[in-house]
Design brief:
The structure is a single chain. The protein folds into two domains: 3-152, Creatinase/prolidase N-terminal domain (Creatine Amidinohydrolase, Chain A, domain 1), CATH 3.40.350.10; 158-425, Creatinase/methionine aminopeptidase superfamily (Creatine Amidinohydrolase, Alpha-Beta Complex), CATH 3.90.230. It is built from twelve helices and 16 strands. Helix 1 packs across helix 5, helix 5 (158-183) runs antiparallel to helix 6 and helix 7 runs antiparallel to helix 8 (289-306). It is α+β, with helices and mostly antiparallel strands and 431 residues long. It has a six-stranded mixed beta sheet. It is globular. Strand 2 (69-72) and strand 3 form a beta hairpin. The structure holds glycine (GLY) and manganese (II) ion. Glycine (GLY) binds next to loops.
């Protein structure tokens, strides 16, 4: 058995142990997880792309397996009701020939209807209505149980870390290929296609739609188009692109200067990169992520002053809230079988939390624990609609800001495992 297979067996053992405790604590005999199904376009016979429910993927790694069910009961092998209808229009889904499959009782089925439940108290989790669950004599998505199972996804097993590391390697191969096409003058679509080729993943299987922003598009945080024509001037590329490997997600961002970039832009990229490295160095069990996010704002304030985008003291810039105008998103988030993984915003009792009022986009406010995998992604952008209400501020060097507007913005993002021995950066160094 390979090291990965051995790790996967240990992962499944840990998962069964965690589920057994959570199910007992919530007074249920078992849980039925529904993988989900793709949405059909209204009035059409075509479907949107699909990702299976995170808890289903946590067990199976099968992020594309739709209309399937997994019954988990303590002390019994999980039963995978696997949707594989005889179909000459499509190739029926198949499970890989891997040792983990032997840990499951597998029942191939023609129907996507839920399986009959054995006698007992059950919860059904996933994209199911209360009515469907009630018809089965079960409860749909009880919040306390869902929160307890979410918690099992927070600290990653060795197997999960291996998958995340592997996803990062593949994503970096994509980034390298994409960068070459940017340097060769390609359009956003060319860069995206090169990325997919380098990462060896089709678009519908990615963990999120890649963000390929040339010039001002880099300042649109989740820019969603791929222009087919290259711009005349090549000032910048912001590429935020990931990969799914055995269900696990990479989420990496790089920003590059082009041949037509203003002189101010490259030093700013270097400044954000150096800030990102300092923030990564601070990652350790017990660190409050919201405090680290505030440290990012301190670093951004210092950078704005140092690069003469704002003529004021670092303290005054921080106090004025201007750093939140230049960086309106959070420092990072948990990463796993979902790119923005669950349970980033819960208190010590597992109750949902709101992000801090001043930082509404922060997706992780917990104290860090060994085994968490987080993204660290400071950014600095020129976003006209956010800057507009601040035009009266005399301390802002508007000429410099305007020179940068055509470059959009900068984000540098790596994926990092928190350990007691220090941060373990899963993202390869090159490029
Ligand atoms: N990669 C996109 C995000 O983290 O929002
Ligand atoms: Mn991210």
């Amino acid at each position: 058995m390979s090291e990965c297979e051995g790790q996967q067996h240990a992962h499944l053992d840990t998962l069964m142990q965690g589920y057994s405790e959570a199910l007992a604590a919530h007074g249920v005999d078992g849980v039925l997880l529904y993988s989900g199904h793709p949405a059909r376009h209204f009035g059409d016979d075509q479907h949107a792309s699909f990702a299976a429910y995170g808890h289903f993927v946590h067990w199976t790694g099968q992020a594309q397996l739709a209309r399937s069910w997994l019954l988990v009961r303590p002390g019994k092998p999980p039963t995978l009701y696997f949707h594989a209808p005889a179909d000459f229009w499509h190739l029926p889904a198949r499970l890989p020939e891997e040792p983990w499959v032997d840990r499951f009782r597998v029942e191939a089925r023609e129907t996507s209807a839920p399986p009959a439940l054995p006698p007992g108290r059950f919860a059904v989790l996933g994209d199911v209505s209360d009515g469907v669950a009630q018809a089965m004599g079960a409860e749909a998505n009880p919040p306390g149980l869902v929160a307890a199972l979410n918690e099992l996804r927070v600290s990653k097993s060795d197997y999960e870390v291996s998958c995340l590391r592997r996803a990062n390697r593949r994503a970096m191969a994509g980034h390298r290929a994409a960068r070459r096409v940017f340097e060769g003058g390609g359009a956003e679509l060319d860069i995206q296609l090169a990325y997919l080729g380098g990462a060896r993943q089709r678009e519908s299987e990615l963990p999120y739609p890649n963000i390929v922003g040339l010039n001002a598009h880099g300042g649109v945080l989740h820019y969603q188009h791929y222009d087919t024509v290259a711009p005349e001037k090549r000032r910048s590329l912001l590429l935020d692109a990931g990969v799914r490997h055995r269900g696990y997600c990479a989420d990496i961002t790089r920003t590059w200067s082009g041949p037509d970039s203003a002189g101010e832009f490259t030093p700013l990229i270097e400044g954000v990169t150096s800030l990102q490295q300092r923030l990564i160095a601070d990652l350790a069990p017990g660190v409050d992520f919201a405090a680290l996010h505030r440290r990012m704002h301190e670093g951004l304030a210092a950078l704005l002053v140092e690069q003469r985008l704002v003529n004021a003291s670092t303290e005054a810039v921080l106090e004025s809230g201007l750093t939140r105008v230049f960086c309106p998103h959070g420092l990072g988030h948990l990463l796993g079988v979902q790119v923005h993984d669950v349970a980033g915003l819960v208190d010590a009792n597992g109750q949902p939390l709101q992000p801090p009022v001043e930082h509404p986009a922060l997706r992780l406010t917990r104290e860090l624990m060994a085994g968490m995998v987080v993204t660290i992604e400071p950014g600095l952008y020129v976003i006209p609609m956010l800057l507009a209400p601040h035009r009266h501020r005399a301390e802002v060097n508007w000429k410099r800001v305007e020179r940068l507007a055509d470059h959009g913005g900068i984000r540098i993002e790596d994926n990092v495992l928190v350990t007691a021995a220090g941060p373990d950066v899963l993202t390869p160094k090159e490029t």
